[in-house]
Amino acid sequence: MTTGLTRPDGPAKLTGTAHYAADADTSDALAAALVTTTVPNGRLTALHTADAEAAPGVVRVLTRADLPPLGELSTPPLGFPVPPLLEDTVHHEGEPIAVVLAETWEQARHAATLVRAEYADVTPAVPFGQAEDVVPHGGLVFGETDESKGDVTAGLAAADVSVTATYTTADRHHSPIEPHATLARWDGDQLVLHSSVQSVLFAQAALAALFGVPPENVRVFCPFVGGGFGCKGFVWPHIPLAAAAARVTGRPVKLVLTRAQMFTLAGHQPATRQTVSLGATSDGRLTALRHTSSNASAQLGDYCENTPHGSTWMYASPAIETSTRIQRLHRPGPTPMRSPHEGPGMFALESAMDELAHELGMDPVELRLRNEPEVDPLTGEPFSSRKLVECLREGARRFGWSERNPEIGSMRDGHELIGWGMAAATMDSPRSPSSARLRIDHTGHVVVETGMQEIGTGLPAMVQAVAAETLGCPPEDVAVRHGDSDFPPHTGTFGSMSTMGLGSAVRAAAESALEKLGAEPGDPLAGALAEAGLTELESEGRWSPEGGGMTRGRTGGYSIHTYGSIFVEVRVDPDLGLLRMSRAVGVYAGGRILNPLAARSQMIGGITWGYGQAVLEQSVFEPNLGRFLSKNLAGYIVPVNADIGEIDVSFVDDDDRVASAIGAKGIGELGAVGVSAAIANAVFHATGRRVRDLPIRIHHLLP
Amino acid sequence: MRTFSYHRVSDVDVALAALRQPETQAIAGGTELVNWLKEGIEAPARLVDITGLPLAGVESTPDGLRIGALARMSDVAAHPVVRDRYPVLAQSLLRAASAQLRNMATIGGNLLQRTRCPYFRADTALPCNKRVPGSGCAARHGDTSAQAIFGWSEHCVATHPSDLAVALAALDATIVVRGEAGERRIPATEFHRLPGDEPERHTELRAGELITAVEVPAESGAEHSHYLKVRERVSYEFAVVSAAAVVQLSGTTITGARLALGGVAHRPWRLGGAEQAVVGLSVSDRPALLAAVAADFGDARPLPGNEYKITLAQRAAVRALQAA
Amino acid sequence: MSNHVAVTVRVNGVDREIEVDPRATLTETLRDRLGLTGTKKGCDRGECGACTVLVNGRRVLSCMTLAVTAHGAEVTTVEGLSSGGELHPVQRAFLENDAFQCGFCTPGQVMSAVACIAEGHATSDDEIREWMSGNICRCAAYPQIVASVAKAAAELGGAAR
Ligand SMILES: Cc1cc2nc3c(=O)[nH]c(=O)nc-3n(C[C@H](O)[C@H](O)[C@H](O)COP(=O)(O)OP(=O)(O)OC[C@H]3O[C@@H](n4cnc5c(N)ncnc54)[C@H](O)[C@@H]3O)c2cc1C
Ligand code: SF4
Ligand code: FES
Ligand code: FES
């Protein structure tokens, strides 16, 4: 069994006492229910609220005229650019147009069904693939849209072997088990929010700007998030709506999105279409790599899934060319989802690498080893730390890859064909500032306070571990308080950035405490305080990457990323088109691992997400109606317990002091990368069918 | 959800009287009805809680098996006689829904569940003749990948999702119903209706009637039987396609068979022709079995994107026969 | 409210008498009326298992249960499992095996696991996987959940059946 720190927040979560946003005391609060558009475009011409207003328990129905004036704000921190209710123009189906406020949830929910809307100029929604590809602009474009070096056309022409193929990934929804929830309460011009968000800092800044009050007037609580995976990173419309409703009515307001609303008001991972061309010499050295992409986006915001990003640092190739485009469609706004960019992107690249290996008659692990770059192939800059080769070798060893018979369909067990496939994984390493306050009392007990919210990644245990390691005290002596915007700011629990930033900040706070005490790590803290004549000591620690703000992986002259390898065994019942993953081995290099127990859980979670992407998850966008068809967890299926077999997770030694002061990098998203390619590659090995469209469904596999 | 009044009953006649009132719905396990109330698919003024009726027993008699309509799916699946002598029935129950839902859901309610057509189940009313009669069928020219291949009409292309119903059809079971005019007995193969031009009539149950029991005849020969459920997720998912098979064998030669398919029509689809054609074949002769089954698909009319169901259903039927 | 219905339920060993809106589910009643927010609402449609509680000892979905229909029943929620600050063996196994992350599905998982063991459906890893599949964990702590249920079953004697 993997060892490590069990979660200090575990007992509260296990006994039902951990407080999530919807658990805030609501005895005096109004229940809010949103009314949303039922058409994808056109104009809202009338809104009839009289029936709803007359329904029992209804206090008020808010429409645009009732909203206080709202300030301008960019995207991000907003998830979608239009402040809610503010325009006649319909941007997508499921967009809020009114808020019903009633004494109970049952009353609000019923009255919301009584509001009638009229629309004009509604036209059929254009599906993804039938609109123009355009260059995206703005804050939801994370990185360059076009990158290149060398001459790809010449490289392909000079290749002994080349492959070109087009891959697609589906629209997917984050579907955390906790729906978005916000409780808003105004006290004069002070706003208190309990909200399920991945960043209390973003929520605070956004609400302050929208309502024209200073940030210190907005206090956001969010100790626990019941899963976010990206959909709670930015500020979505219901949060300002709850605050506006509370302001207008002078009562606290609780707004919990329904599961259906989670499909249109909290983002999704958009469908992508990608084309990869690879050229290689007969001994498997790349001569050219081209990766182009387009994703479904909304009318506004230009969210861009930068799928080719990883292709710019993954393999040594003299010529690399990438481009990413979007199509502006009448559909809800997409947002980053575990794992953004490299998640869909590496499905394409790593499938193409497998196709190339097959064409070359070369082992796919060997092909990757032959193309290991010494420096960032695009920029020529050094890698801060790159242990892909170690991951590939160790993964192959743990899996027993050397036993693989490369012949297609060579392994069978009863009705089932068995296939082994692999892929490499990588994630960019964005980093962001964080801070923490540390207090030591006269008994030697340590409290760390930070604005971070615990979303499941195990940050409280990580904070304990870093504080204890730096101070040289037992981890049990460290208590962690979090999820309050009054605590020292932490950028957000997303992008796999938290451990680096917060861990480094906690370490700085602990070092500063030792310095103030003139103590050495391991000195009894109570004694040190007594010696210094103190009953309590407080210190603060901050950390930020070079430049002070949020950075991407290529900064400060280094190329900073995480790496891994994933090997899977699939079983395909070709008669019935059924695909199951019986075994997976993942080996990762994601910086120093501070808590192996939680790190293993993260990677198991990621691999399961990859399985979902590969085999199950697809939100059907209904073109005639211009909406996501099934907005529920029976129509949008995610993995259940019985889907997941044996998963072996391990880490290679890695310690990246360029990335962060504690040598850590991010791992939360890395685990979900590459899995879908490994599965598709294993399906090819089992059946000879190359499936380039995710998810791989029964109909793909029926011969 | 509109508000309603709530009444408990413990006597079948009292229940029938209560159900004769307008805008009244019975509630058993509630796992379907509560969903409909929340989506606005149904908006009764009165709910009659029938879980107190004495209809929850499972009896094994020389004539066969009699399952009370209010027996819970989990209890029926765990009943020793069901488990040992009617594998197809136990399997159809255990492969449905989840442990929690099976603890709540009743046999009668299971048969009366409605289609999982995503248009019918949407968060707002979309054009759907089953939901709002006359409103059209958005699925017909929409996403038909999960819809029927048999027996659909221009007015509705949905399938029925009950696993249990498929097993009961293969067992030649009878649905026993009671109304004002007394008892009626409806063959399980005819209980669910093909849509025709009245898709809003989901089953043969009439307004004000109760299902009281399901009877499985002793001569069903269910010892050799199997329920095969094909789905993308390993558990907790409705069938893409399913097959129930009940077989009589002499050595390895099939001497009799009953075969029903799920996920292909708005009723369990019995393959009468195939049942005849497989007699005399060896149960291990897959090509011959497949040919016999495929020959009974003359009526199949696939919709765009669901052609795969033809291949899949034929193979599922053969696999179920061989596993029985 | 005119059509409110008086309901008596025994929740975690305590008799509670309340007037409920017949539309209210047991999830909402436990959370909003009885202050027992340990029970979570994930989907409100029977599709995730987060709201699992025991009614008369059986695991059910509280979001699909109208509170009126629970009249006279004995309800156990996650708050009623541990006593005197001691974790229940299932909770302890979950903690030791790191069988949760965000924790939102966890009360439902724990209640389901308690029932799974009591039903005798925890005799092998595969059996646990199947019988715990009615509880979706989007964080995907599934292997750890299986290990925890197996461990607790061994301790509680449920594995030997
Ligand atoms: C997430 C999910 C997954 C599911 N998966 C499956 C699956 O894989 N396979 C499957 O087969 N099912 C599945 N189901 C459906 C489930 O089995 C049904 O919801 C359940 O069987 C309905 O029974 P109930 O007692 O709860 O019915 P209720 O909800 O109480 O009633 C349903 C309807 O039947 C009527 N009714 C009930 N009993 C009687 C009676 N005796 N006489 C007359 N009318 C009656 C009610 O008035 C109501 O109209 C699933 C359900 C959910 C929510
Ligand atoms: S197929 Fe039937 S249930 Fe589905 S939309 Fe059409 S009428 Fe409604
Ligand atoms: S909340 Fe009840 S099953 Fe999801
Ligand atoms: S722990 Fe997050 S959903 Fe299970």
From TrEMBL, chain A:
Transmembrane feature ranges: none
Swiss-Prot/TrEMBL keywords: Molybdenum, Oxidoreductase
Residue span(s) of domain Aldehyde oxidase/xanthine dehydrogenase a/b hammerhead: 15-123
GO MF assignments: iron ion binding; oxidoreductase activity
Xref: InterPro entries: Ald_Oxase/Xan_DH_a/b (IPR000674), Ald_Oxase/Xan_DH_a/b_sf (IPR036856), Ald_Oxase/xanthine_DH-like (IPR016208), AldOxase/xan_DH_MoCoBD1 (IPR008274), AldOxase/xan_DH_MoCoBD2 (IPR046867), AldOxase/xan_DH_Mopterin-bd_sf (IPR037165)
SMART domains registered for this protein in UniProt: Ald_Xan_dh_C
Entry-linked Pfam families: Ald_Xan_dh_C, MoCoBD_1, MoCoBD_2
Protein name: Acylaldehyde oxidase
Organism expressing this protein natively: Gandjariella thermophila
From TrEMBL, chain B:
InterPro entries: CO_DH_flav_C, CO_DH_flav_C_dom_sf, Diverse_Substr_Oxidored, FAD-bd_PCMH, FAD-bd_PCMH-like_sf, FAD-bd_PCMH_sub1, FAD-bd_PCMH_sub2, Mopterin_DH_FAD-bd
Keyword terms: Oxidoreductase
SMART domains linked: CO_deh_flav_C
SUPFAM superfamilies: CO dehydrogenase flavoprotein C-terminal domain-like, FAD-binding/transporter-associated domain-like
Occurrences of domain FAD-binding PCMH-type (ranges): 1-221
Molecular function GO terms recorded: FAD binding; oxidoreductase activity
Superkingdom field: Bacteria
Protein name from the UniProt record: Hydroxylase molybdopterin-containing subunit
Organism per entry: Gandjariella thermophila
From TrEMBL, chain C:
Pathway: Alkaloid degradation; nicotine degradation
Domain 2Fe-2S ferredoxin-type: 5-81
InterPro entries: 2Fe-2S-bd (IPR002888), 2Fe-2S-bd_dom_sf (IPR036884), 2Fe-2S_ferredoxin-like_sf (IPR036010), 2Fe-2S_ferredoxin-type (IPR001041), 2Fe2S_fd_BS (IPR006058), Aldehyde_Oxdr_Iron-Sulfur (IPR052914), Beta-grasp_dom_sf (IPR012675)
Species classification: Bacteria, Bacillati, Actinomycetota, Actinomycetes, Pseudonocardiales
Name of the protein this chain belongs to: (2Fe-2S)-binding protein
Keyword Mitochondrion: no
Keywords, sorted A to Z: 2Fe-2S, Iron, Iron-sulfur, Metal-binding, Oxidoreductase
Entry annotated with the keyword Iron-sulfur: yes
GO function terms (MF aspect): 2 iron, 2 sulfur cluster binding; metal ion binding; oxidoreductase activity, acting on the aldehyde or oxo group of donors
